[in-house]
UniProtKB/TrEMBL annotation:
Gene3D superfamilies: 1.10.287.3610. Pfam families: DAGK_prokar (PF01219). One of its GO terms (molecular function) is kinase activity. Belongs to the bacterial diacylglycerol kinase family. This is Diacylglycerol kinase family protein. It comes from Paenibacillus mangrovi. ATP binds at residues 12, 72, 81-83, 90-91. Its cofactor is Mg(2+).
């Protein structure tokens, strides 16, 4: 086990995020959705409370996807052959991503509903 400086630990963490973005299509979809949501939130001048909810939802999904990617790598390393426990581990991690994504979708609808209704109601 190598010990490193705080800066090199930070570098490894960034490498991990970059690895997930490069290798996981779902991570790229989540990232693209997050960019769209952040641009929409800025254009609609959302309140800070709505911003906090959105940023929490985005972070939750990203964190779950990163953990899912990490778990997939560990499972493939430990059990490259087919095994019911490997399946259970991967399916459960995928379930965590799914739950977080459903939460983010519902939170997004709740956060954007009123500002969008006001905008459309005022004729744009
Ligand atoms: N070693 C294994 N043993 C049994 N089932 C497995 C194993 N590896 C994968 N699976 C099954 O195949 C599914 C897909 O696994 P895979 O490793 O391809 O992940 P993935 O769907 O590509 O995930 P992602 O899209 O996040 O990359 C798993 O959810 C699991 O049900």
């Amino acid at each position: 086990m190598r010990s490193g400086s705080l800066i090199s630990s930070f570098g490894y963490a960034i490498q991990g995020v970059w690895y997930a973005l490069r290798t996981q299509r779902n991570m790229r979809i989540h990232a693209a959705a997050a960019v769209v949501v952040i641009i929409a939130a800025a254009l609609l001048h959302l309140s800070w409370m709505r911003w906090v909810v959105l940023l929490l939802a985005i972070t939750l999904v990203m964190v779950m996807e990163l953990m899912n990617t990490a778990l997939e790598s560990v499972v493939d390393l430990a059990s490259p052959e087919i095994h019911p426990l490997a399946k259970a581990a991967k399916d459960t991690a995928a379930g965590a991503v799914l739950l977080a994504s459903v939460f983010a979708l519902v939170a997004g609808i709740i956060v954007f509903y009123r500002p969008l209704a006001d905008l459309l109601g005022s004729g744009g």
